[in-house]
């Protein structure tokens, strides 16, 4: 099986973030909530149990979605939106979704937005390589 640019990109992005989430959980496994919830900063992100679980929930499935090019393209676009939304919220609050405590909210927001931008860029490159979104998603359609 020859892996596409999107598949390789998604695999790398998800592997890095899954490892980061596991390390973040090991360093600060607390599931406390509220402004005083303990966190540890890891590669620009404030981690505790909640943030680690969210990272695993977002990036863990990406390891499976990397198995097909069309899945990879769709997942990159959807996960970029899912990661950007709390990033936008983090620009304005230390308490994202009323659960995630981000003492370094601006840094967290930037990391979320950069990750989302990289995911969109990988998807766009694949779409351009394939000559359009329809071609990138061609294997989703049933054979005639």
List keywords for this structure.
single chain; 144 residues; mainly alpha; two-stranded antiparallel sheet; two-stranded antiparallel ribbon; 5 helices; 65% helix; 7% strand; elongated
Overview of this protein structure:
This protein has 144 residues and is mainly alpha-helical. Helices cover 65% and strands 7% of the residues. The chain is built from 5 helices and 4 strands, in the order αββααββαα. A two-stranded antiparallel sheet has the order 1-2. Strands 3-4 form a two-stranded antiparallel sheet. A hairpin with a 2-residue loop joins strand 1 and strand 2. Helix 1 packs across helix 3, helix 1 runs antiparallel to helix 4 and helix 2 runs antiparallel to helix 3. It is elongated and about 50 Å long. The model has no long low-confidence stretch (mean pLDDT 94).
**Mean pLDDT, all residues:** 94
What structural class do helix, strand and pairing data support? mainly alpha
Oligomer classification: single chain
> What count of helical segments does DSSP give?
5
User: What string gives the helices and strands in order?
Assistant: HEEHHEEHH
**Biggest β-sheet: strands ordered side by side in the sheet:** 1-2
Which range does the strand content fall in? Answer: 5-15%
Radius of gyration: 16 Å
Count of individual beta strands: 4
Helix content: 55-70%
What distance separates the N and C termini?
A: 23 Å
What is the fold's blueprint, element by element?
Layout: H1 5-27, E1 40-42, E2 45-47, H2 49-65, H3 69-92, E3 95-96, E4 100-101, H4 105-130, H5 133-136
Helix pairs in contact: 1-2, 1-3, 1-4, 2-3, 3-4
């Amino acid at each position: 099986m020859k892996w596409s640019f999107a598949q390789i990109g998604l695999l790398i992005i998800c592997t890095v973030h899954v490892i980061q989430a596991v390390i973040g959980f090991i360093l600060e496994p607390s599931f406390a909530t509220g402004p005083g919830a303990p966190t540890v900063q890891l590669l620009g992100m404030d981690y505790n149990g909640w943030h680690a679980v969210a990272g695993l929930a977002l990036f863990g499935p990406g390891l499976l979605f990397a198995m097909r090019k069309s899945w990879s393209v769709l997942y990159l676009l959807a996960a970029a939106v899912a990661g950007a939304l709390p990033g936008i919220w983090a620009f304005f609050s230390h308490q994202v979704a009323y659960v995630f405590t981000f003492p370094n909210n601006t840094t967290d927001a930037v990391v979320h937005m950069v990750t989302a931008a990289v995911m969109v860029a990988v998807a766009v490159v694949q779409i351009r390589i394939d000559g359009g979104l329809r071609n990138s998603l061609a294997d989703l359609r049933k054979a005639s």
